[in-house]
Amino acid sequence: MKTRVTKVPTSHELGHWADHRDDASSDLESWELPASLNEALVSLHEAGELLRTSDIPVGFPTETVYGLGADATRSAAVKGIYTAKGRPSDNPLIVHFCDLAMLRRFLSPAQDTKITQFNGSSSSTTTNGTNGTNGHHSEGEDPIPAIYRPLIQRFWPGPLTILLPNPQPSRLAPEVTAGLGTFGCRMPASPLARTLIQLAGAPLAAPSANASTKPSPTAAGHVLDDLDGRIELILDGGACNVGVESTVVDGLCSPPVVLRPGGVSLDELRTCPGWEGVEKAYKDQAEDGKKSAPRAPGMKYKHYSPRAKVVLYEASYEAGKKGVLAEDLDTVLEGFKTKESLPTVGVIRTRGWPAGASIPHHAVRDISYETSGPPETNGYGDSIFNVHEGELRDRQSGTRIGRLLDVDLGQDNRSVARGLFSALRELDRHGADVIFVEGVSDGEDITAAIMNRLRKAASEIRV
Ligand code: TXA
Ligand code: MG
To answer: Residue 176: CB partners within 8 Å, gap ≥ 6?
Structure first.
C-alpha cells in the first residue's frame, strides 16, 4: 500500500460554528462547512470519502497528537485501526465528535431518525436540544450528564475526554469500547479535525497514530515513520500545539476522577462546579521496577518509547557535585568498549541542565563536549527545537569517545509538552543509543502529563 501525505493549508477556512444568537451556551451546537470549496477542503473531502467507504484508517492532526481515525460505527473500519497500529484490541478508543448536535444524536439512538432530518436546519421541533437551544430544555432531556456541562463549556473544543454511558442500543462498533459500558468522547479543538469528522458523517474512533509502543506522533512525518505502507492517507496540518494527549476524566463516579493526565490540568478541572474534589486515578510515581539507585537495571515497560533506551532523571534527583549524568554516562561508555562503534548519547534538557548536561564534570573520565557547527533544525519541520550535535572527547588524550546530541526544550512547561515526543523521535532518527532526560517537578498543571508520559517511556528512572 502506498501512503500519501497531503498537506492541508490551515490558512483556508475549514468551517465555522453556526451562529445561535439567542444563546451563548449553544456555541458548540453545530459545526458547519464553508459555503464554497477551497484547496484545503478538497483534500478533506477525499479523506472523508475514504472514511465512509474504506476500512483503512486515515491519519489526521488534532491539537493534542495525530490520530488514526475510523468511522466509530463500523466494526470493519475500527478493526482496521488495530491492524494498522499493531495494537491489541483490548484497549478502548476515544470517539471524536465535531459538535454537540452530533453527540446528542448519538446519545439518543431512539430519536436518531427524527433528529437527522433536522440536522443543520433551524427547526425547533426536536426535543433533545439538537435544535440549537441548548440550555432551554429541561434537565431530563439533555442526554449529556449534567456533571459534564461546566467542563464542556470551559474546555471544549479541546484536550479533554469525558466518559459517557454507552447508550443501549448503541451505534458504536463493539471494538471501540472493549466491552466496557462507557465510552470516551471528545471534541477536538482543531478545526481541521472537526471538518473531517463532519465530512466523514460519523464520529471518528481515533487512538494516537503511532505504531504500538512508540511515542505519540505530533507531526505528520512521525505518522509516516510508523505507518508507511500500512495506511493510505495522512493529512498534514503541521505540528500539534499541545503535544500530549487529552486528559481523560470520569464524572460518572463520585468523586469524579482523572484517568489520564493530559492537556487540561487538574487545577483547571478543580475550578469547575462539581469538580472541586476531583481525584487522580492514575499512578504518578515512578513504577517500582524502574525506580532504581544509579545503575541498577530497571524493568522494560514499552510505551511511548523510542528505540533508544531512555533514562529519566526526576526533578528531585541530585547527583551531587560530580555531574548529573556522570555515572550513567560511564556505564554507557563501558558498554561500548567492546563494540566497533562509538556511542551516541542524546540529552533532552528542560529547566536547569546546562548544555551537555554537566558532562565536562565527569567523575571517572575527564570528558569534554564541543558542539560542531550550527544546530540542526529537526527533520520534521515542526521547528519546536533544534538538535545540537557535539563530540565527547577524553580531555587528556583528545580521543573521540562518543557523539552527543543535545536538545533544549526550554523552561516553559507548554513548550516542553509540545516538543517532548518529537524530541524522543528526533534523537532516534539521529541514531541515539541512549537518551538522558531531565524531568520537571510534577504539579497540578501540564507537568503531570509530561512526567506521566516520561515515566512510561523510561526504562530506568533516577529518583
Ligand atoms: O488526545 C487524545 O486523546 C488522542 C487524540 C488522537 O485525540 N487520542 C488518544 O487515544 O490518546 P488513545 O487510544 O491513544 O488513548 C485512549 C485512552 C486510553 O488511556 C484509554 O484507556 C482511555 O482513553 N479510555 C478510552 N475509553 C475509555 C473507557 N470507556 N474507560 C476508561 N478509559 C477509557
Ligand atoms: Mg496512544
So the answer is: 72, 78, 92, 93, 95, 183, 205
